[in-house]
Structure formats: structure tokens, C-alpha cells
Queue: 2 jobs
Job 1
Amino acid sequence: MSSLLAVKLDGLETTYLAVVILLGVAVFAAIIAQIIVVFGYWRGNRKQNSLGITGGEYARQILDKNGLYDVKVEKCGLLRTFLYGNHYSIAKKTVYLRMYTINKTSITSVVIAAQKAAIAQQCKEGDIKTLTRGKLQGLGIFGPILFVPLVVLGFVIDIFLFKTLLFSLIGAGVGLLFIAFGFVATLLNYSVEKEAAARARELLAQDLTEAEMVTVKRILRSYLIEYLLQFIIAILRIIELILKIFIRLRDR
């Protein structure tokens, strides 16, 4: 019985090690994908689009064509550029584009503008996945960051005020809830962005040349690969967390 238990315990640790290795591989692949995306953007930014319009103008054109007159197109501020990059904000009803996207007349600029305008269109149509992802998007970034401060705050309140573990547990619970919401947002990213990319490709095919569409498809493909790897990383991280909890419970 003890030998069988040892095998099971070894199996749990082996599974955890395998997940950690896969996570490392996925993170490395994501870094490579990010480099490919940046290179693809750079190449596309060197080519002027045949429409002769900027990304901001093209986004406005698409939004107006679909009756989204109340959706604004604005340049990202420094903080938005750092945290979100090019994106659509449900709360602000605004397509935010980076400076080199909103002002340039390159192929890359109209590709990104079309894709983000497509997300605004999906929101207008009431797509549940897009709306949910949009509302939880902030937690995808801030959820993991807030976890430790919330736990520490609860711990400090318990130590200096109430001499219990109640607020420590509450802080940990709220922090885990934020992480869970952020995890859901990450899981929805790929599906939402894939649908928006397909819409953008259809829109762009009506306006650009066949030669330009080769670059368009390359940019969107590399973009989606990056989101797919983020999805895989999110899955592996949650599996790693669950296995770590099991191992710690076992060792008590």
C-alpha cells in the first residue's frame, strides 16, 4: 500500500514537473511569436496602403459604414499604450490606436484599425464573448498584480487590529476571484480576436489589392498565433496552480 502511494505521489510531482516544462516552452514560444509579430508589423508599416488613408481614417470609415457613429477613434495615451496597446474600450465606446497606427498610411495601420473596429461591431451586435471579455479585460492585466497586495493588506489588518485570520482569508479570496476573472478574459481573447480578424480580412479584401492581402493575412495570422499561445499559457498556469495546491496539501 505504501509503495503504491509513493508511486502516486511521484506521479503527481512528475505531472507538475511536466506542466512546468511545458509552461516554459510555451512562454519561450510566445516570446518568439511576439518577435515575429513585431517584425510583421514593421514590414507592413514600411508599405503604404493603396487607399492612401491612415489607420484612424480607416477605422472611422468602417465604424460609420456599420452605423457606429457614436464610437470614437482616438490615439492611445502613454498609459493605455503600455497596458493595452491598440484596443476597443467598451466603457469609453472608443477605438484606441497607437500613434503609429492612427497616423500612418501603411498596410499594418489599416489592418489593425479594421480588426479593432470589427471588435466594436461585435459589441454592437451583442456578442456575449466579446462583451464579457471587454468587461473583464482590465482584470486580465491587474488581477495577478492585485493578489499579493490584497493578501498583505488582510494580513496587516489581522495582525494589528483584529488578531484573527479573517481578513487574510478575505483578501486571499478576493485576490483569487480577480485572478479567476482575469483568467476568463484571457481564455476569451483568442476566440474574440479570431472572429474580429476574420471580419477585418473580409473588409480589407474589398478595399486592398491581392498583393496587399498577402501581407494582411500574414499580419493577422501571426497576431492570432500570439493570442493562441497566451491561451495555452493561461491553461498551463491554472493547471500548475492546481497541482501545486494538491502537492502542498499532500505534504501537510
Note: The radius of gyration is 22 Å.
Job 2
Amino acid sequence: MVDKRIQLSPNSLNLFLECAHCFWLDKNLGIKRPPPYPYALNSAVDALLKEEFDTYRAKKLPHPLFKENNIKAHLFENQKLLNQWRNNLAGIRYFDQDLGATLFGAVDDVLEFSDGKIAPLDYKSTSSTTAKIYDRFQLQLDTYTFLMEKNGYQTPHKGYLAFYVVDKSRGFIDRLPFRKEILEIDTNPSDVYEIFKDAVACLKNATPPVHNSDCQFNKWLKGAQKYNN
């Protein structure tokens, strides 16, 4: 049933934790959950931020966000390697021989410290009034930390989220103002392998597990079935 070339990302692991049934259908049969409305603005902001941070990187200058928040690190200098790690089709990867599966992730950026350790930096844009760290953000940074360590890098077990929050108080006037803030969070890569292993084992089952009890897609399906009999 399962393709021997199992490749999972932080989003895949998050789907597995949300609902193993939906995860199994997605990865084994290509039956995906209905997609959310595309966030084209978020993608545009992400592309512009990569361009902005790369400009500071090329000039070997600290980004103002780091100085304002007293983060004593500089941008990862290896632009060629960073471009590979950013690529959704490549990313930073780890192949596990025992599981016969690959875990990979496409990082937005990387910080480097004076002792040579590196940490993931992810850009987030939101229209909420406050920057909120969701569980999927934590898992994302945990996974990036895990992947960095599996690729031979030391990490401080820290991850960074650069939030660009739409400032609705300043009006529009043909410009969309953002309030910038960066949050440092502790990362825990030690749990990532177990989640990865359990997700791979799930995919190797001949049949899907039951839906998680709080899966909203299953609740919708059950509700719809009442009117299709």
C-alpha cells in the first residue's frame, strides 16, 4: 500500500497529530482535506521578507529586528545552502535507514551564533491583533531543529518567529502598515523522532485508523451522510 519513498514534512506530522485517518488517506491514497482559502497575501509577504533578509545577508549587516530585540546572532551566511533548505522540493532533509523514510522541511531563514550554533527563523504574517504561537508553529521549529542536528549542526534549542502583524490602527492609505516583533521560543527536538516513527508506522498499515474524535472533517462527513441515505 505505502510508497517506499515516504517523505514527511512538519505539515505532514501536524496532520498526523490532528487526525491519523486524514493523514493516512492523504499520503496513501492522495485523498486530501478540502483546502482552505489560499492566502496569496501571506505568500507575497513571505517572498518580500526573504528578499529583505537576503539583502542584509549579502551586506553582512544585522537585520534591525535583531538589534531592536537584543538577539545576539547574525544571518546564516551560506546563501547557496539556505536556498536549498528553503526549496519546497529539496529542503533540509534526513533519511532514516530503519524507517525507510525521509523527514524534510523548508526553512524560511537561519540564525547563526558566535559559537557556531544555528537556529531556525520563520516568518509569520497575521491580521490578528497579537502574535500567537500555535502548536503547529512549535512543531515546525522543533522539526527544523531536529533536522539541523541530524545534518551535523549544533543548535541552542531555540527557534525564532518573526511576526509581521497588520497594524489596523493606522489606516490603509495605499499602504499596508505592519508592526514587527520577533519571539524566541524553546525547541524540543527530542519528541520529533517518535512522532515521525509513529506517522511512518501508520502509513504502513493496510487500512486507515479511525478518525480522531475531534476531527472536524469527520464531524462534517457524518453530518452530511444523514442526508445522503
Note: The chain has one domain: 6-224.
